[in-house]
Amino acid sequence: MTHLPVTLGQFVARNPQTPFGLILIGFVVAAIGFLVANFATRSGTIARATFKEAIRQPVFLMMVGLALLVIGANMYIPFFTMGNDTRVFIDCGLQTILICALLLGVWTASLSVADEIEGKTAMTLLSKPINRRQFILGKYSGIVQAVLVMIAITGTILFIATYLKVGYDQREAGTSQDPILDFDLPFPYLVPSRWISALQILPGVVLIAFEVSVLTAVSVAISTRLPMLVNMVSCFAIFVVGHLTPVLVQSTFQGDSLVFVRFIAQLLATVLPSVDMFNMSTAISTGAPIPGDYLGYSLLYCLAYCTAAVLLAFILFEDRDLA
User: Fold this and answer.
1) What string of DSSP letters covers 176-242?
2) Pair 38, 47: CB distance under 8 Å
3) What confidence tens digit (pLDDT) does each residue in 146-182 have?
4) Cβ contacts of residue 3 below 8 Å, gap of 6+?
5) pTM tops 0.90
6) Residue 261: CB partners within 8 Å, gap ≥ 6?
7) What is the pLDDT of residue 5?
């Protein structure tokens, strides 16, 4: 029993500001909310059908397999970071999950919304007691649920891989390797050094879920008017510019930039989603904890922008000719 206080003490000392308990509670609340919405609302019927369609399509298994392949390969690739291989491994794993989740969300939105509108199958759904707003809301909810399931699967694999990566790096560095499990108690439990390193991915997974939810809402709005190829190119451009807007705005105020250039930079930063706020690469590279306040503000921004994008989708789809 002497190891448990040490484990909790190390956990609290190294992660004083990251509310891991609240993150887990948030996951449970979100899961319950999706279940209630799926079975208690009319849009939930469309959400369930969209979710099943999304996880059955080959691109879902392809993206999950690609993420697992990259994570597994990175476990054995030396990064030559002078003792920080685990942090770089976590950063690469989170970026892999982000890219695969974005591809899945944009692809599914294009297939589930744009193709159904172009193929006239949306008229069949709207001929039932379901209006256009419920159609859009159900589609978005189903796509987000499929993407979150993928993030949960790949995030779990990354957690396990990070737990194992700590011991692998210790062996490569020639230091004493921590055991995978500690058997000092009557039952085996996780080793503190491995467990604490693996927990660093949890805030990153949460921020990835926020970012993908925002860009999926944007993709659904674009899909109501534009076909798949234009949708994917537009979302890619928004993703790139969204990560660059803070730098663009800051650079326009540092030099003698033109008023027009400054106006365009501020306009892009206002209209487009500032997805760079969901990027935690700097925190991972420095080993800094993610404060709970930052996660809370990110959640509020995610909910506000998702609401605005879905409302825009309502407007764009309201007078769309389906005949």
Assistant:
1) PPPPSEE-SSSS-EE-HHHHHHHHTHHHHHHHHHHHHHHHHHHHHHHHTTS-HHHHHHHHHHHHHHH
2) yes
3) 999 999 999 999 988 888 877 666 665 556 666 566 5
4) 182, 184, 185, 189, 192
5) no
6) 252
7) 36
